[in-house]
Amino acid sequence: MPGPSPAPGSGSPGSRRTPFLWGVATSAFQLEGSPHADWTSWDEILSAKPTVTNHYELYREDLALLRNLGVNAYRFSLEWSRIQPREGVWDEGAVAHYQEIIDILRRDNIEPMVTLHHFTHPLWFIKKYPWHEDASVEHFFRYVEKILPALRGVRYWITFNEPYVLVLAGYFEGCTPPALKNVPLGVRALKNILTAHAAAYDIIHAGCPDAQVSVAHNMAALAPWKRWNPLDKLLARVAKYFYNHSLLDAFLAGSLRIKFPFKEELVIPVPIKGKLDFFGVNYYTRIHMRFNPFKKMGVEMRHLDIDGRGLTDMGWEIHPRGLEKVLRYASALDVPLIITENGIATRDSQKKIAFMKEHLDAVERCRERGMDIRGYFYWSLIDNYEWLQGLDARFGLYRVDFDTLRRIPTNAAAYYSYLIKNRKF
Ligand code: BGC
Model's pTM, two decimal places? Predict the structure, then answer.
């Protein structure tokens, strides 16, 4: 296996001279679970109970896999519910645990990118201060304020992973905590989450002026089911604005514009204008939309295998061109872009390799066109717990045997190492 590529940080952070970040991404709960998180107590709304990879115990072995791969960056998250298991109670051991991970990464010349919030919450938080309550912002702020001086050696921060997915799942679909189906509360929750981003951005910069801070925004290619159908086209356009663009506009203008059909546009001020040093894009797939009066809000969504690449094990379309599109949208922000997640659930290594190759070709085309793309993080290092699918979705470069917990390299791991060594970005 190749050795590590040059460590980032030879230039000033985020400067043109900083080497391209070749990374993999994970999230704490998906690898290590937590006895104190809201997720474990929501078994009734999940089809599978989270059984995970024991990463909390096996982290040293897993970090050694990063060295084997030769990545120079690693995105991972802190599990807030381990750090603050009860209101007002801090577990210094958990903080020390995450610091040790950072120290190992630094020793190995691997740039840590730390996500403060990746979908899960402490149980006490979601029960007493769910995001639609304004007090949520204050509690998140206290967590960030606590963790920041305690963690040394981190320059890249993601405040929230996929704020829109968090709100859509928790307040529109009602399939994740707080499991509500309430649009106005969802809008309030989104406003509070973005306000919490702004607060976190400010304290991170107060402690570390050259920190690089962003959210990771899930962006999708959204298309009409039937191109000739004006209603499908309209739907896809509205969805594209809301899902992909409205957050970009909020960073540019400092307000969220939400338009419900037949209602006046809602303009909600959010204090996030310019609070972004780079922009994290998570991209996986394309979704086709059609108007169907028998479905919720008249919308039906489907993955269609239009290009004949086959669907993933989760039934998602493989559509590398979509990555080019969303990167083009995101470049309107005029900050460097980093692909903070891109990956495929499949047991077929050849398919994983083709996925990776074609998406990195798309990144290369974007860079050739002059887009400022500074990094790519494959999701994920090892197989893990996939939120609504459990353990069947195999995203890992390393396969996990969930009976023995052995990590077994797939051919895609060797391929990624090869790309890192030979692809000149
Ligand atoms: C999330 C990950 C998830 C992946 C695949 C992303 O949207 O950030 O947590 O595992 O999608 O579904």
Answer: 0.94
